[in-house]
Amino acid sequence: MHNLNPEDFSCPLPIMEYETIQLAHGSGGRLSAELVSRLFLPRFGNETLNRLEDQAVVDFSQGRLALTTDSFVVDPLFFPGGDIGDLAINGTVNDVCMSGATPLYLAAAFIIEEGLPLSILHRVLLSMENAVKGAGVQIVTGDTKVVNRGCCDKLFITTTGVGRVPEGVNISAAKLEAGDKVILSGTIADHGMAILTSREGLSFASRVQSDTAPLNGLVAEMLRVSPLIHAMRDPTRGGLATTLNEFAASSRVGIMLEEAAVPVRPEVRGACEVLGIDPMYVANEGKLVAVVPAQVADKIVAAMRSHPLGREAVIIGEVVADKQGLVVMRTTLGAQRIVDMPVGEQLPRIC
Amino acid sequence: MKFVDEYRDPALAGQLLAEIRQTVTRPWVIMEICGGHTHAIMKNGLDQLLPAQLELVHGPGCPVCVTPVETIDRAVAIAARPEVIFTSFGDMLRVPGSASSLFMAKSTGADVRMVYSPLEAVALARQHPEREVVFFAVGFETTAPGNGMALLQAKREGLTNFSLLASHVLVPPAIRALLSSPTNRVQGYLAPGHVCTVMGWQEYESLAEEFRVPIVPTGFEPVDILAGLLMALRQLEAGRYVVENQYGRSVSREGNRAAQRVMAEVFTVRDRAWRGIGVLPASGLVIRDDLAGYDAERKFAVESIRVRESELCQSGSVLQGLIKPDGCPAFGRECTPEHPLGATMVSGEGACAAYYRYHRTSHA
Ligand code: SF4
């Protein structure tokens, strides 16, 4: 899905006169129009977008709407396993579908730094195109702005997504009940460590790959076997620990985890070890955590395992009535410890 | 991670715990001097698994915690200079000085950058000959050789725009001070494995003999720590007081000679203030006079630092093992990781932070 290798293809630069983004590409004039018609429309074109109105008018059935927006400012733009383009699509698709909604339409806004090579923008757009197809959604409206050199870091992308929430589905962080099981769809910390190790040039960790992926297919599979999911979220920034703490606080319950059950890839664990970072706090971009009633937990795990993005799905713990608002972990040695909310960014230790 | 997993093996840990229970016949107080140990003990919940007769107390072995406020204030002042790129490991950035931290300085325009190795800072100096690159060289004997190497590298390359703000501390003088104190309760020590990797355990031998305490250089995995405790307990129960090495896979009696040579070439020993504890004789490393050009403290004279510290904070007592963090009245109330009053609540290896992070239900 995103094993696209941008080095492999040679692209005739779509806007011949310039190799880099000029301020005029954002002026609203001829160059802006060219940027849109030659670079964006061929990738994302659809009936709605092609009209190039100031707004998208789309069909929408009655019922409930899920709406989300997110800005992507990742550095570096390209990292092992993905880039800012597929992140911007997958991240927003995932935020929509964590409500159980089917994502339908996206809006995309680009803030581009003057001087950005067009070839880079092109690479990002190609991977967005792939991600859009992979998630089965449409970009129906968008915006591009070019800012002076130094006023943003290369490229920022904001995506907004809408989706339809199916009848009978009601997922919320406030719905956890004692006895519920906590399910994780796969290994944690892959994305954050891929970014960190590529940013810092830590070559020992070269095998660490981002897990960026659209989760709407996996969610559909889960809902197909049971609509009774209580809470669901993709643990992005702040990692699994933050998401579970938010759940525990919203529902005023405790969560008891089994340390041994939480899967971490060996190469990711190794990189975390070296930097003194706890994988529980590291970002994921293609994983979800769901809290479901105990009686449907096994059925949902089985359904998840039948989907490529949920093959490693496991139950990692359960909701408990005591320890209100706290996430507690039973360590591999049988003791207990609190898994706290992080205070700020995780900082590598000194020695 | 085969190499690590065997030191986390629950079966092996269980066996060691059983042996510890069988060995203990009366109450003992053992101090783990190193913040890395404190952190591993709390994170794995080892304290909950040990017999009640064995009391663990936490020592001053977190370099972030014992860095004097004055040094943080100096770092902030140097970082604020327009020509300076100030580099540091991550965990120093959040530590509060009197009025500001390096993170706050960064947000108000100082060029503060987090690096993973002092050599990255040297590379920055190479890339930016028009700027002054300062590296905040903090830590025990563990980080001193690497930081010294960076200075020597800059010297070899003829870089004149690189300097260290050096704030290194030494472990044995701290142990000596704690043991000499009339309030001392500690009967045995787990010595910091990483420090001993560099320095060996020779220098602990006289301490063990003079003060009649077992000292055990110990690794950082749960099985290491339990094995280290067992070794110390066996000595205590038998009335033996020697240095016994648990961390054989990386520590030798002599330590790493090459690393020690670098330290001697770059630094010299001096009395040094420890935050919360006070001045300990011959417990710090400063840059030698012949390398003064690489010493940020001398290069950027910072005048009139007025140090202000919280009156509530009892981190000095925490660092000396006199009270546990939850014995401080401010713990979890006025003082939390979001609003820390002392460095021991900020640093990832600080005892107050470890208690708050992993165990505040049972205490607060
Ligand atoms: S809990 Fe806070 S105030 Fe009390 S000793 Fe620790 S750092 Fe200082």
Automatic annotation (TrEMBL), chain B:
Keyword hit for DNA damage:
no
Q: Which domain of life is it from?
A: Bacteria
Q: Which Gene3D superfamilies match?
A: 6.10.20.100, HypD, alpha/beta domain 2
A Gene Ontology biological process term: protein maturation
Q: Pfam families this protein is in? A: HypD
Task: Write the record's keywords in alphabetical order, separated by commas.
Answer: Iron, Metal-binding
Q: Name one GO molecular function term.
A: iron ion binding
What's the family?
Belongs to the HypD family.
Matching PANTHER family: HYDROGENASE MATURATION FACTOR HYPD, HYDROGENASE PROTEIN ASSEMBLY PROTEIN HYPD
Listed name of the protein = Hydrogenase formation protein HypD
Q: Which gene encodes it?
A: hypD
